[in-house]
Write a structure and sequence with these properties.
This protein has 453 residues and is of the alpha/beta class. It has a domain of 106 residues: Urease, subunit C, domain 1 (Roll), CATH 2.30.40.10. Helices cover 36% and strands 17% of the residues. The chain is built from 16 helices and 15 strands. Strands 1, 2, 3, 4, 5, 13, 14 and 15 form an 8-stranded mixed beta sheet that branches. Strands 6-7-8 form a 3-stranded parallel beta sheet. The protein has a two-stranded parallel sheet with strand order 9-10. The longest helix is centred in the C-terminal third of the chain and has 21 residues. The chain is globular.
Length: 453
Amino acid sequence: MPLLSSALLCAALVGTPAPPDTVTAFVDVTVIPMDRERTLPNQTVIVRGGRIVEIGPAARVKVPEGGVRVDGRGKFLIPGLAEMHAHIPGAQAADSMVERTLFLYVSGGITTVRGMLGHPRHLALRARAARDELVSPTIYTSGPSLNGNSLPDPAAAAKAVREQKEAGYDFLKIHPGIRREVFETLAATAHRVRIAFAGHVPLDVGLQRALETRFATIDHLDGYIEAMVREGSPVEPSQSAFFGMNLAEQVDESKMAALVSATKQAGVWNVPTQILMENLIVGGSAEELAARPEMRYVAPATLAEWAESKNSMLEETGASAASARRMIEVRRKLIKALHAAGAGLLLGSDAPQVYNVPGFSTHRELEAMVAAGLTPYQALETGTRNVATFFGTLKETGTVERGKRADLVLLDADPLKDIRSTTRRSGVMLRGRWMPRAEIDARLAAVARSVGR
């Protein structure tokens, strides 16, 4: 699938966030701390120097003199969200395009991204974001793609793993096509030098071996449908196309429980990217998807490419419409089963990607998680507390608590009652820097103009 290479055209960022030492107070707000399912009404939250320094009843907590007051009456404060299957432009993309993509994430309250197709320039971006030199989520980045072409033999795999570890990437990204013997060397070397690997499950490796070798995350629920193909199926798992779209009618659901249990036992997390699949299969026609509000930030030429991808999906995969719909049904059941078993789920939509616009598609993924059977609170966990648990940063991030990093989103309605409320934002706080709705809207308008909208 093509990335959003032409959707975000070059345009300079409009202004910069407030200085990091500014004191900001969210006054008389309902806090949804995400430490457990609860709300704390009528609170005042004080932020100073990028940290939450005080939380307490609005009647008791005083706003420091000179602090920025944000009226929280009737509003809800949640932790910043994470996009755990993000893409950041690389290669020859202009700096302004990169910055625009990163801003779009922030505009949607996405304060952490995990880049899934790394490039050397992303290491510098990660550092610049940490120094607040650009409006960007906190970045975790993979190295460049490891696939059947880039890793022709075990020696190449060992070399690539060592080089990416030495370069400072956060993890390795696995793509399709890697032969089993090559993967074994990759996994062994990665464990030896202590760098995680994540992403796709190559067909020659299979889900069972992916779990045994402890993928950090399996993305797209890759490998599960293939592992559930019934005995005697006329279509072999090795013939899988697009995450098993052509195999779904051959699934034996009785195999699901054992796979879920093995996933839990292995400690492997999943990033479903369910909305990507639903966009392509059950999300409506290409014309209906193109009419979504966020498509104003996508160039017409890119929308045409996306329409072509959607309209040709069944032909390219050899799947029937019934098999494609069955794929969605099975994936929803799998998501619910993984959660029920305590196997970790992380929020990720795969953006930018077909009809997935950065900063917007993450919220559609939350809706997809609820459609799969999670409660709104459980869906929010996948993008907040679970992410901090996965990265080992729960002492710093993931919940709204005193002493934690001030990555926050102020909402106009209660997301625990309706998950769609995460799209109703009054503003975003990024590492202690408050960006009100008016500022975000002004920057979004510039993005729309840049693509001729």
